[in-house]
Amino acid sequence: MGEELGRAVSDPDLESLGLKEEGLRDLFRMMALTRRADLEATALQRQGELAVYPPLAGQEAAQVGSAYALEESDWIFPSYRELGAAVVRGVDLVEYLHFYRATWHGGTYDATAHRFGYVSVPVGSQILHAVGYAMGAKLDGASLCTLAYFGDGATSEGDFHEGCNFAAVFHAPVIFFCQNNQWAISVPVSAQTVAPIWRKADAYGFPGVQVDGNDVLAVYQATREAAARARDEGIPTLIEAVTYRMGPHSTADDASRYRPASELETWKARDPIDRYRERLVRAGVADDGFFAEVEQEAGAFAARLRAGVIASEPRPVEEMFAWVFAELPEHLRRQRQEVLGD
Amino acid sequence: MKFREAVRAATVEVMRKDARVFVLGIGVPDVKGIFGTTVGLADEFGADRAFDIPLSESAVTGICVGATFRGLRPIFVHQRIDFTMLTMDQIVNHAAKWRAMFHGAHPVPLVIRAIVGRGWGNGPQHTQSHHGTFAHIPGLKVVVPATPHDAKGLLIAAVEDDDPVIYIEHRWLHEEDGEVPDGYYEVPIGKAAVVRAGNDVTVAAVGPYVGEALKAAGALAGEGVSAEVLDLRTLRPLDSETLLASVRRTGRLVVADADWGPCGVSAELLAVTAEHAFGALKAPPVRVTWPDSPVPSSQALEPGFYPGARQIHAAVRYTLSRGASAGLAGSSTKPFEGPF
């Protein structure tokens, strides 16, 4: 699909990646864990254990490949569909899913410990937090970059344009990582923008790269290069990872109402996990034993997630008042008393 | 020291004390320095701690929120508060909510300085007040200093505060003179000030209306009426204790607010009073607020739009069931002096 994608980075040479065999296998492992956890979360929602969940199936290569390409000290600012990046960062998924289980206002994971920002619902808003963090790091003289995840729909938001422009002007070390999954709920990318997304970078004066988002190694390579440019030279990069959301926008959506079935079939044939499995076998890096081992690990991972989610309880009512302000103001103290009856 | 100089003095104090503080906004390093409030900051602290921005109010607010992740303490300055309307997603959905959403783990120590204009035209989109809009949102603190002393002390307190603080300055107060102590001091957020003691009526005033209320109280004293004037200073969290203590003593309340009335801070004050001091009231409370229409551009319309000492005086008279005095002029007027 290289030609069809124009300036695509696709199917890179294994040697050029600097990943040892263990790293190559690790990428597969993370993608498999992500797929399995994502399916489990969707199932949990269907069974009434989660209030809502936005599935990412089909986008594993885009998320895992990019998150894996960063250094530990680099920060990730997700939207709401980046469970795969959370897996790479070792975020506790039960804590991550508190938000989707509606047992708390947000995820309760430690963002700083994982350098993984909070789930952000207003579309594109997290792009600015990534720029702000990067700018702060630059003021401190720290050598790191930030990566903002967003979708094709977010590229129509003002925040995307303003964030790109600001980062360019201030040389903030940011990677703008667009997962173009073809659909913003029911709006196709053709109704979102006329110009190819990666080309928008021209307007801000930094590199734009289009990458086959279902090729984990291509994503890894493009992100690795962008991260080096950001850290070493303060040059942001816009990466457009061309991929596909195989499921609905969220469990409250029915994609079959607006998407042709043939389109899904086309993209199923490009399933990023199947493709990468073939690649690893072809390169002699992994065998059936490895894949069986990963499958077992993924099953156990999903079982732990299920048990953890089901066991997680809503936070106590008094916490509703706990962190509205740094100190509890008098009127809130009274309201807390009325609610708790103490 | 003038009010605008006090704002600058506070900024210098906090930037000297804490290297995590930086100031950004359109015109910060400009020679005019946002009405003089940011003059010389870039010289003393460097261009990476006091700088200009692209015209991207929403983005810059989000960038400030992101910078708090690194422990930085931004001061984002708007020459017109009207432009904060472009930033509401980042202020309301992010800055105000993060502490609660993330289990207390992420404070957002952001200060938004927003300047309210008057008398320079472009009324409807250039001279609104909006403090009531922000005061409605849980997680935000809102302060409106009325004196140079409080302008300095409240700005220092706002930067020290771990919550997002909307710091609102009225352009007409920028040239006011007053005593300002040297050095580093805070005026506590959440505390109103009794600026004139009295027994017959409580006049609770916001920002520029504190001065108008004091003028009215002076005239009333000559008529044998003892008015107590409160400078609210903080609109959120509201110092209802000071308000209620005063109203319980005087039994009468007039609120003078530089904003629209409906759903505003004046409405909140009346609600708090009705809920907690209903029995103490000797007369219905009265609000002196803007007419419920867009702020006019025309100077010919402004005297009709902005109430002043005369209206406050009339409101007090009403609560005392005495006739209004014709002896006081309406709202103060000032010639437009620019620059923008």
Main pleated sheet of chain B: 7 strands, mixed
CATH topology of the largest domain in chain A: Rossmann fold
Cα Rg of chain A:
20 Å
What global shape of chain A is seen?
globular
Give the tally of β-strands of chain A: 8
Number of helices of chain A: 14
**Beta-strand residue percentage of chain A:** 5-15%
Helix content of chain B: 25-40%
Q: What does this 3D model show about the protein?
A:
The complex is a heterodimer of chains A (342) and B (340). Chain A is of the alpha/beta class and 342 residues long. Chain A is built from 14 helices and eight strands. Chain A is 47% helix and 10% strand. In chain A, helix 7 links the parallel strand 3 and strand 4. The longest helix of chain A has 26 residues, at 21-46. The N and C termini of chain A lie far apart (65 Å). Chain B has 340 residues and is an alpha/beta fold. Chain B folds into two domains: 3-173, Thiamin diphosphate (ThDP)-binding fold, Pyr/PP domains (Rossmann fold, 3-Layer(aba) Sandwich); 193-329, Rossmann fold, CATH 3.40.50.920. Chain B is 36% helix and 17% strand. In chain B, helix 12 links the parallel strand 11 and strand 12 (286-290). In chain B, helix 1 (3-17) runs parallel beside helix 9 (148-160) and helix 4 (57-68) packs parallel to helix 5. Residues 323-327 of chain B have low confidence and may be disordered. Chains A and B meet through helix 6, helix 7 and helix 14 of A and helix 4, helix 5 and helix 6 of B.
